[in-house]
Amino acid sequence: MGVPLSNVVMLMGKGHASWSKILEALDYYGISYASKAVYTKGISYQLPMCCIVNNDNSFILWYKGSFYGATGVDPKKTISYIEIFVD
Q1: pLDDT digits over 39-53, tens only?
Q2: How far apart are alpha carbons 57 and 63 in whole angstroms?
Q3: Contact yes or no for 55/77 (Cβ under 8 A)
């Protein structure tokens, strides 16, 4: 990987994100991710070491037990996540 998060943010730009735009950015930078998102509604879940979480229709990076760029995230509002594979 070795790509600064700021570069990925610059590629994606500001505004509304979508899964397709996020996956396009991951593909562009050669970042591996799971083939399917996990939908969490109504089930107990534990986030993997690194993933992108769709929480209350906002996309948030989760890495090693912390959300980046967001505070006060309500786990009950998590809709889905996709695991990002890191070394």
Answers
A1: 998 789 999 999 999
A2: 19
A3: yes
Distance CA 47, CA 1 (A): 21
Q: Strand 38-39 vs strand 78-83: parallel, antiparallel, or unpaired?
A: antiparallel
Distance, CA of 6 to CA of 76 (rounded, Å)? 28
| pTM recorded for the entire structure | 0.82
Look up residue 45 and give its amino acid: Y
Contacts 24+ apart (CB under 8 A), 76-79: 78/40, 78/45, 78/53, 78/54, 79/39, 79/40, 79/41, 79/54, 79/55
Q: Any alpha helices (H) in 1-87, and if so which ranges?
A: 5-12, 19-28
